[in-house]
From TrEMBL:
One of its GO terms (cellular component) is plasma membrane. It comes from Psychrobacter pasteurii. It is found in: Cell inner membrane. This is Putative inner membrane protein. It is a multi-pass membrane protein. Its main location: membrane. Residues 1-21 have a biased composition (Polar residues).
Length: 423
């Protein structure tokens, strides 16, 4: 599979992971200064608007979102591709970066959650969700969907910011799936069996210190197991992407996965202290879709999902929704990062990847509502919050990935082989 430099980088989590060229043959393109200036103006206008119309946390979250999108794009930090590489040929490099990210996150989350540390003095709570049929079905569906849709929740946003055209299709149907999932959620949570929530910190008697130590052991074991699998399968290594040297690397070219892992963990902790909850993505998709449905005459307010604490969000401006602001920041941050590398370019949509994006988006949106989050809210945020549901999400999403490896060729999508070189 041959790709141009722009395609291999801009396509990010949905590029198929393959780059047959050596990094030395791929030169960085000149920065797209006009696009950078345009994105900077849009970001500034949005920041000022939020500063004038919303509580001070909202413009702060926009800045955090910009940094998240910038980091995700520069490192091509993926969850979809990490699971696919490991499931197909045993390459666990990105999976180990996940473990580092989670190790830093739990180290930061433990004192924040234990002592209620907040920038604005409000309550602070992690993502601890119930264990039940809803979680099992939803996370498995999400695992399949992200491999067909070409990206996870964060990957969809940063690929949209990078100009990958088919990801706009994934995003649209992600929103539709999340809206349908919100409508059906009371059935899955109230009619299907559930064991309730389980926290390694508060449900075991370990406390946050004990849960932190246990988490580090688990991450170490997972990293070690990935090395064993990698050695046994003689997995191909990830080839370095073209980048600048020295301080210029901050602005142009690829960042090391492990550096990005640390930055993402720190930004998630700052998000927790800013809005009282960890980083999340897909609740905003359900909100956007529900607002559109309401505008079309659907009685969305009567849905069980929009009762209680969620009712106010449906009536308020989307700019009052902290997850929406984070999402907009991610798209803008990824756009700036792609333009800085001279990489923003709309890509071709084929009938195969269009169909896969429709199905994948629907599965991810629906699955994320059932599983109480996506790769960010459930996997990253859940595990960082010491919730057992985050670990279950990861296992079942990986199981969905294995099944999706057999489905991808039906849509003309590639599956990594042991002879491939990864980017």
């Amino acid at each position: 599979m041959t790709m141009t430099n722009a395609q291999s980088i801009t396509n990010g989590p949905s590029s198929g992971d393959l780059n047959p060229k050596s990094s030395s043959s791929l030169a960085l393109a000149p920065p797209q200064k006009g696009l950078i200036a345009g994105a900077a103006i849009v970001s500034l206008v949005l920041f000022v608007y939020l500063l004038v119309t919303q509580p001070v946390a909202q413009p702060m979250l926009l800045i955090i979102g910009l940094l998240l999108g910038y980091t995700l794009f520069h490192a091509r930090f993926g969850f979809t591709s990490a699971f696919r590489r490991f499931a197909s040929v045993g390459n666990g490099q990105a999976l180990r970066a996940h473990m580092l990210m989670l190790a830093v996150a739990v180290t930061l989350f433990a004192p924040i959650l234990a002592f209620g540390i907040s920038f604005f003095g409000g309550p602070v709570a992690g993502y601890v969700a119930p264990l039940g049929v809803s979680l099992v079905v939803g996370s498995f569906m999400f695992g399949i969907g992200m491999q067909l849709g070409g990206g996870c929740a964060s990957g969809t946003l940063y690929a949209v910011g990078g100009g990958r055209s088919v990801m706009f299709i994934t995003l649209i149907f992600f929103i539709i799936g999340a809206t349908i999932g919100a409508y059906h959620l009371p059935f899955w949570t109230e009619e299907m069996p559930s064991m309730g929530s389980y926290s390694l910190a508060t449900s075991t008697g370990l406390g946050y210190g004990g849960a932190w130590a246990l988490s580090l052991v688990l991450f170490g074991l997972i990293a070690w197991a990935s090395l064993v699998v990698e050695k046994k399968k003689n997995a191909p290594k990830m080839a370095p992407l073209p980048t600048e040297t020295g301080w210029k690397r901050i602005f142009r070219g690829a960042w090391p996965l492990f550096a990005a892992a640390i930055v993402l963990a720190v930004l998630n902790a700052i998000t927790l202290m800013t809005r009282g909850q960890p980083w999340g993505i897909t609740s905003a998709f359900a909100l956007w879709g529900s607002k559109v449905a309401s505008g079309l005459g659907v009685d969305v307010a009567s849905w069980g999902y929009w009762q209680g604490d969620n009712a106010a969000a449906l009536q308020a401006s989307i700019f009052a929704d902290s997850t929406t602001v984070l999402n907009l920041g991610i798209i803008l941050g990824a756009f700036i990062a792609s333009a800085a590398g001279g990489l923003f370019k709309f890509t071709k949509i084929t009938p195969g990847n269009f169909a896969a994006s429709v199905i994948g988006g629907l599965l991810m949106g629906y699955g994320a509502r059932l599983a109480f989050g996506c790769n960010i809210g459930a996997y990253f945020g859940g595990i960082a919050s010491f919730s057992l549901h985050g670990y279950i999400w990861g296992v079942l999403a990986l199981a969905g990935t294995f099944l999706a490896l057999y489905l991808r060729p039906l849509f003309g999508l590639s599956v990594p082989k042991p002879t491939d070189t990864f980017c």
